[in-house]
Amino acid sequence: MPRVRVHQHVNPLAPYFRFVPKPIELENIFANPELPLFLDLGCARGKFLLKMAEMFPDQNFLGVEIREALVTEANRIAKERNLTNLHYEFCNAMVALDKLLENLPEEFLQTVAIQFSDPWFKKKHAKRRMVNAELVETVVKHLSDGGKLFVQTDIEFLADEMFELFRANENLRETEINENPFPVKTEREIAVEEKNLPIYRKLFKVKR
Ligand SMILES: C[S@@+](CC[C@H](N)C(=O)[O-])C[C@H]1O[C@@H](n2cnc3c(N)ncnc32)[C@H](O)[C@@H]1O
């Protein structure tokens, strides 16, 4: 099967991407909806989650991605591999994550990962960045007490901007880390490490 070709970036503020997604129902997407849930925002082709779901059958993995063709293909592969603990959703997390997670029990998420989200370098495009105050609020609302939020990027100014947004939340405690805490690296992480470029990482833990 050839690799699905998609636009490198899509404008999340374009009318097409301002749709309201149907809230997920865990029992419709996972064989065992009670398992701890890991959410990866901006999962692209979902390879990171695919490997994680194979390694950790005792957890559920949900990927969220704005490029629909990648989501369709990632779900096809998950099905082909009989991974009933893995699912991907087409959603613009910047504007609609709250709606997507609306029916999730509060404080249910165990882990959230935000890895190399699109930087939108120009100041005039800052509003297109996925991590904003609303997204932080939604994520923290759904994370369990003791839940973890892992953020990494190779863009220093974007790291500072995101870390400040997370620090501003009174329920998050910051932890210094030098390594990705998971046994799998994302596609972007591998590419950045191959170029020997720095990666800025933080792990935040929820304490209510
Ligand atoms: C640079 S890629 C990194 C992908 C993957 N996390 C990795 O580390 O290899 C950023 C991904 O975030 C997705 N993305 C950007 N803005 C988004 C949004 N508002 N909602 C959902 N996904 C988004 C992009 O389409 C892209 O697939």
Named once each, the bound ligands are:
S-adenosylmethionine
Order of helices and strands: HEHEHEHEHEHEHE
Largest sheet, strands/sense/barrel? 7 strands, mixed
What would you call the shape? Answer: globular
Distance between the termini: 47 Å
- Which structural class fits the helix and strand makeup? alpha/beta
Strand line-up of the largest beta sheet: 3-2-1-4-5-7-6
Rg, nearest Å:
16 Å
Number of strands: 7
Contiguous uncertain segments of 5+ residues: none
How much of the sequence lies in strands comes to 15-25%
The helix content, as a percent range, equals 25-40%
Quaternary structure annotation: single chain
Question: How many DSSP helices?
Answer: 7
| Overall pLDDT metric | 96
Tell me the layout of helices and strands.
Elements: H1 26-29, E1 37-41, H2 47-55, E2 60-65, H3 68-80, E3 86-90, H4 93-100, E4 109-115, H5 133-142, E5 143-153, H6 156-167, E6 172-176, H7 187-194, E7 200-206
Parallel strand pairs: 1-2, 1-4, 2-3, 4-5
Antiparallel strand pairs: 5-7, 6-7
Helix pairs in contact: 4-5
S-adenosylmethionine binds at residues 12, 42-44, 64-67, 92-94, 115-118, 130, 186-189.
